[in-house]
Design goal:
Blueprint: H1 3-17, H2 25-32, H3 36-42, H4 46-67, H5 73-89, H6 95-101, H7 108-135, H8 144-165, H9 167-182
Length: about 180
Amino acid sequence: MSTKEQIIRVADSLIRDKGYNAFSFFDISNAVGIKKASIHYHFPQKIDLGIAVIDYHIENFHKMKKDFEDKSPLQKLDKFLSIYRNIKNDNKICIVGSLSTDYNTLDIGIIEHLKVFSEQVLNWVIAWLKYGQEQGTFHFKGEPRTKAVLLISTMIASVQITRLTGDEDFTLIQKIIKEDLIKND
């Protein structure tokens, strides 16, 4: 892994652990074992690094999406839920949840990239919800976009709140999400 990739991954971990405003290039230099000047070589400003971290998530999202393009809506739901399960198991929060809490203090470039990423994830969830509803796999009231926003926001929030209430609640939330989508009233 290149130094640049190491910097991005450490920054990603720090953002998802401490928050964007709570880490510095000094933290990264200590973790990677390089001088701060080496970080500035790759990322002149913190905004550049923040954008690179979001782009890293966008790239990973596109790879996952491609791997699942031929899967059923139910398999896509399971993948969606597993992403948040993995985040929870890593004792992190998702990049969208972390950066959204810093929204009012973020540079416009980071906000714009975050909106692009969020919209891509939202559109993916809308697509498999809609297709699942058309196939009769999923049953829900309202528009697929509203349901997608509800699912995403529930998972983002549940990763955070169940740090306090416990893993059992997280498991139950995911179980109920799946049961509510599949049940046919």
